[in-house]
Amino acid sequence: MTALTNQDRSPATERAAEPVRHVAIIMDGNGRWATSRGLPRTEGHRRGVEAVRDTIQAAIDLNIRTVTLFGFSSENWTRPADEIDMLFGLFRGYVRRDIEKLHEAGVRVKVIGRRAGLPDDIRDLIDEVETKTAANRVLQVVFAFNYGGRDEIARAAAALAVKAVAGEIAASDIDEGFIADHLDTAALPDPDLIIRTSGEMRLSNFLLWQCAYAEFVFLPVLWPDFGRADLETAIDLFRSRSRRYGGVKARESA
Ligand code: IPE
Ligand code: IPE
Ligand code: MG
Q1: Ligand 3 center to residue 151 CA distance, Å?
Q2: Domains, the chain
Q3: For labelling, which of 51, 107, 119, 201 has a CA lying 20 to 30 Å from the CA of 234?
Q4: Is the full-model pTM beyond 0.90?
Q5: Which ligand is the nearest neighbour of the Cα of 30?
Q6: Which pairing describes strands 193-196 and 139-147: parallel, antiparallel, or unpaired?
């Protein structure tokens, strides 16, 4: 793998055209990638980490501001224990191995999802990488780990209830912005583009609140095969869409 620097040599003006602020990716298909080759599912997850590295480099080159990667869902606990152990081990190993390189490249790392229930050492590792990279501004990489959209919204509702009972807020204070500020993604912009690999066309509990006006791109490629060209394909599709947010385009309103 090459260094995490901006390797894009195209003119700055071209690269700067219509920047995609936030791309969120449902990294799916590791198991199918492996079984189609007669390999254990875990091998697909291992290769999936390489695709994560390539995607982060491509995101830097394409001047994307934030990339969110769905790594482990609140429903993935229903998988066999050895697969779960493997996924946690890969996450642990990836962060430990890449923390310095990410930091040097100016990548800010954040993790969203339920912290309670994660092994202590992984929680410590998350704290360490978030603190170390907090001031970095080249690219923000958000790992959704032990994440579920419904769980996130329920935790936000519980936090609001605690404040209401303590008399810190009134029911009339609770509006959309207030709820957004109590989600794990409080400091993040909503995703502009959601990509799912593997051909499945569902959200699987990903960013339910935040994707209200996201554009969706579903690609048939399995996650371990995902690379820069696929990211560019998705961004091209995104740029061909007309985002109206419930309104009408200026030229259509005359
Ligand atoms: C995505 O690949 C990785 C995780 C969900 C952790 P899968 O493991 O879901 O692979 P498929 O969908 O079974 O092929
Ligand atoms: C979604 O993929 C979760 C992640 C990519 C981490 P799944 O493979 O768990 O989703 P389903 O089961 O096909 O809906
Ligand atoms: Mg899957």
Answers
A1: 19
A2: 20-148+190-238 (3.40.1180.10)
A3: 107
A4: yes
A5: 1
A6: unpaired
